[in-house]
Specification:
Blueprint (H helix, E strand, L loop, with lengths): L5 H4 L7 E2 L9 E6 L2 E5 L4 E3 L4 E3 L4 H11 L9 E12 L3 E12 L11 E10 L4 E10 L5 E16 L4 H4 L6 E17 L4 E15 L5 H5 L5 E14 L10 E11 L9 E13 L4 E14 L7 E2 L15 E2 L1 E14 L2 E13 L11 E13 L2 E10 L2 E8 L4
Antiparallel strand pairs: 1-6, 2-3, 4-5, 6-7, 7-8, 8-9, 9-10, 10-11, 11-12, 12-13, 13-14, 14-15, 15-16, 16-19, 17-18, 19-20, 20-21, 21-22, 22-23
């Protein structure tokens, strides 16, 4: 659960509950990017000959009107801001409440082709000691000369550990409970090369502290440090020809991050990582999109145990417990059929597979982890879907609630 997207895998913000402020002329909410709801000026004003007063709307009426009109185009605003929150439940983290406050804006309002920047502040608290707060966003500079991606979050929560290799991870008897606190900061500054590609440096800092080790966790750690800090620097390249980032129907996406965590930056050992995501999208028949993705993360050197490559998230190998299977290297792939059914409704079907391994010589066909699932799609806004996925694999199944497509 090293990635904040896991919050949505566990059902954060589901079912959705819009948070409407009690101001007389408060706007309704709509969404412009991943997990972000923003305000739109849609307040009705009643005018008479003698006085002007806002027309009052109840919360239920606001919500019904919002959902009915959420996929209608809205006029652009200088800064769009909004809040969304909701309850969620998971057997591991318990009953909780999550909240997101988000804003979208343009660095150059005179440029209609410039993508809108975004920033999101998110938090979560549950009955089983899960606490989390974070900030993330993407800033697009004028004329798309540069792009800044950033992420900052801190959390503490009870989790499970199975081990650090396939034989350990595949043994149900190794399931051991422990608690973990993590803090991470990542920033990526990319310079535009041509119409579709960017290149630039990436910097990441991580701090992980494990405590309250139970069951076999002390034996599984086998002397590994319970507190780990990691400072990584590297180079990132992105090529993106998708027609729409949040729900592509055609185009290609390639992202490659090459990183190093050397000892002179304060790390205990030096290790290297290379992560690649390659995705493609094609129209099949009427209302159908076929999307495919290949992802891999390869590491070399003495990799700290919290930074090992792993399987499972709200976007890949849906249904697997994130972090159960981990090792130096991972390769995973998935192909998904997205079919529009009627009005604002659609479905998705996917199959996938993954394998974790220490070196290529130890790849084994019998260790391939299968994945498949089915999902429901509801068009929340034009081109933006709310998704409810049911994924299953070798060790069980899971339900994923999220906004926007998995990849």
């Amino acid at each position: 659960m090293d990635n904040p997207k896991t919050l949505l895998r566990r059902g954060l913000f589901g079912p959705l509950v819009a948070v409407a402020l009690a101001l007389p002329a408060h706007p309704l909410w709509t969404q412009t990017n991943d997990t972000t709801l923003v305000a739109t000026a849609d307040t009705t004003i009643a005018v008479s000959d003698t006085a002007t007063a806002p027309q009052k709307h109840g919360l239920v009426a606001r919500l019904m009107r919002y959902f009915a009109e959420s996929d209608k185009p809205k006029a652009n605003k200088k800064i769009d801001f909004g809040i969304i929150g909701g309850p969620h439940y998971d057997t591991d983290t318990g009953l909780g409440l999550g909240l997101v406050a988000s804003a979208t804006y343009s660095a150059d309002r005179t440029d209609s082709l410039l993508e809108r920047s975004n920033a999101s502040l998110y938090s979560d608290v549950t009955t089983k000691a899960f606490l989390m707060i974070g900030l993330r966003g993407n800033h697009f500079f004028p004329h798309r000369r540069f792009r800044l991606d950033y992420r900052l979050y801190v959390y503490t929560f009870p989790s499970y550990l199975w081990g650090f290799s396939y034989p350990q991870s595949d043994d149900d008897n190794n399931k051991s409970k422990y608690s973990r606190t993590k803090f991470e900061v990542m920033t990526r500054l990319l310079a535009r090369l041509d119409r579709y590609s960017y290149l630039g440096p990436i910097i990441r800092y991580q701090y992980v502290h494990a405590y309250k080790l139970k069951d076999r966790a002390p034996q599984l750690l086998a002397g590994r440090p319970m507190t780990v800090t990691d400072v990584g620097v590297g180079l990132s390249y992105t090529l993106d020809s998708r027609d729409f980032i949040l729900n592509a129907s055609r185009g290609w996406f390639l992202q490659l991050d090459l990183m190093s965590s050397p000892t002179f930056l304060g790390n205990n050992n030096t290790y290297y990582s290379a992560e690649m995501q390659l995705a493609t999208y094609h129209k099949a028949w009427r209302g159908a999109i076929i999307a495919a993705e290949l992802h891999t993360r390869q590491c070399a050197g003495e990799v700290p145990w919290p930074m090992l490559s792993d399987v499972g998230s709200s976007n890949r190998m849906r249904g697997y417990y994130e972090g159960r299977y981990r090792d130096k290297n991972v390769i995973d792939a998935q192909i998904e059929l997205r079919q529009h059914i009627w009005h604002r409704n659609g479905i998705a079907l996917w199959v996938g597979a993954a394998e974790v391994f220490p070196r290529y010589s130890e790849l084994r066909f019998r260790r391939i982890l299968p994945n498949a699932g089915v999902g429901y799609r509801w068009q929340f806004k034009k081109g933006v879907n709310v998704r409810l996925d049911y994924g299953f694999g070798r060790n069980g199944a899971g339900v994923i609630f999220n906004i926007n497509e998995a990849f």
